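Researcher: Here's my situation. A collaborator sent me these components and asked whether they could plausibly form a single complex. I don't have experimental data yet, so a predicted model of the whole assembly would be a useful starting point for our discussion.
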Amino acid sequence: MTDITGKSKVLLIIPAYNEAVNLPPLIDAIAGVCKSCVPLVINDRSTDDTVEVCRKLGCKIINLPVNLGIGGAVQTGLKYAQAKGYDFAIQVDGDGQHDPVYIPQMLEVLRDGANVCIGSRFLEFEGFQSTGIRRAGIKFYSGLLKILTGRRFTDPTSGFRAFDRKAIEHFCEDYPRDYPEPEAIVMLHRAGLEVVEIPVIMKSRGHGRSSINFTRSVYYFTKVTISILISRIARRR
Amino acid sequence: MERVLQVILLIGTTLFSVYIINMVRTKRIELKYTLVWLLTCLAFFVLALFPKLIDSIAALLSVKDSVNALFLVIIFFMLMILFSLTASASIQSNSIKELVQEIGILRNRIDELEAPGDPGKKED
């Protein structure tokens, strides 16, 4: 395996809430693709044995004493990356949906000058395409973002993202708390940072259930829509 | 406004203000969070002293019974207090997030310092 990270330090941020079953295959897959990438599990106060599993795998772990939700967990990883001087940070969800195979390609995109690279399911329409109603939601956000930013993002809810140093610093300052992905795109656009999508194939999640049910999806829809609209007019930092 | 209601309002707001100020004096409450309560007390003290004011508010809003106008004013202040609580809960939630992240990162650092050569080792 050639060293795809080169001289740069790459951190893989793995937000995990009760992902003890899904973590070992993920960490294995990462080791197979990118030996010099450093996986860091952000344990968002799991109630299963995520901690023990990480110890057995010998992988870095940050245990949050209080459950912060995905946004808070990812931002913790970004703050770690900033403090430790990492050049790139890649968010890989702990549920096994994101295939580390794409990491080298994402790094390539960042080296070519993009600040953020998003893995999109809908550039080539392959693999797990999510359920109908969610696809409709994704289409809606894609359209809304087109209006607000003038650019087409085919998969604005994808959490498979790579950040360069500039983007890491930007999001250390401010990152949305829950369901952060679409809003984060608006923030990047307003900060003048370059976002590039690459096609990826996502699997349906490994074990366990997704955290999104009906009530939550109503909340998701309302919250994300309003936050996107407000972040478009938010005060610049 | 009824004389009895007037007297109750006067005594109530005075006692409550004294109570709040005493709590601030003995550092059992932050002055910052009492301001909206003190303002409420002052407003009702003034309304009780000059009951004509509530009649004018009632006339202005076409409320038949001026006691209902008083309720309206009370609700207005209650909403104001509720909103100030929401605002402070939001600020606190953000501070807690920052602290939790800092603690998580620091604990990770401590673990690594205590177990050199084994960065994955966990605490306790």
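Model: Some features of this prediction you could bring to your collaborator: The two ends of chain B are 67 Å apart (CA to CA). Confidence is low (pLDDT under 50) at residues 120-124 of chain B.
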